[in-house]
Amino acid sequence: MIFRTTNTRTPRPALRKVRTTPTPRPLRHRLDPARVEEIPFRTTDGVRLGLTRIDTGDRAPAHDRPAVLLLHGHTASADMFLLPETRNLVDSLLDEGYEPWLLDWRGSCRLPYNETGRRYTYDDVALYDIPEAVAHIRTRIGDRPLFAVAHCIGSLTLSLSMTAGLVPGLAGVVSQGVFLTPKLAGRTSLRMSLAGELLKSRIDHIPVDFRKVGLWSKYTPLFALASRKATCPDPTCQILHNSAWGTGASLFVHEHLTETTHDRLAELLGPAPLWILPHLRRIELARTVVRWHDTDHRYRTLPQNALDAAARIDAPVLLLAGSENGLWLDSQRLCRDVLAHRQPQLDVTYTEIPGYGHLDTFLGRGAALDVFGHILGFLGERR
Ligand SMILES: [Zn+2]
Question: What is the DSSP pairing of strand 272-273 with strand 205-206?
Answer without folding.
Answer: antiparallel
